[in-house]
Design a protein that fits this description.
Layout (H helix, E strand, L loop, with lengths): L6 H9 L10 H24 L18 H49 L1
Length: about 120
């Protein structure tokens, strides 16, 4: 896209105020990945050179990629209604089983009374 833009358009865009940082380029993602690999290498070296066990490094935040905390929060928001429905269905099945057992006992008592009469 940059190769196809007119130099005058590029100059005009440079004069406009910046609105946020914009999406990451492929180079930005690669640079973040390099940083993460260096962090992992550092943790590995500390583990090898000492008896210490440092925590795993956190991933570098990227636009559109959730952190583990954000992902857990999102899952909790999504799963809560599903869990509630499943719990209600489980309770309804348990009530139905209990009612079926009660009806079976009543039927057995009626049969026993009919045989004894």
């Amino acid at each position: 896209m940059r190769d196809q833009a007119d130099p005058h358009e590029i100059a005009a865009q440079a004069e406009q105020p910046r609105q946020g940082w914009g999406p990451w380029s492929h180079s930005d993602h690669l640079l973040a990945q390099i940083g993460e690999r260096l962090d992992a290498l550092q943790v590995t070296l500390v583990r090898v050179m000492t008896d210490a066990k440092p925590a795993e490094p956190a991933p570098w935040p990227r636009p559109g990629v959730l952190t583990p905390e954000q992902l857990a929060e999102l899952r909790a928001e999504v799963e809560a209604p599903v869990v509630n429905v499943l719990e209600q269905e489980r309770a309804e099945r348990a009530r139905a089983r209990a009612e079926a057992k009660r009806q079976k006992r009543i039927q057995q008592q009626q049969n026993a009374a009919a045989e004894g009469a």
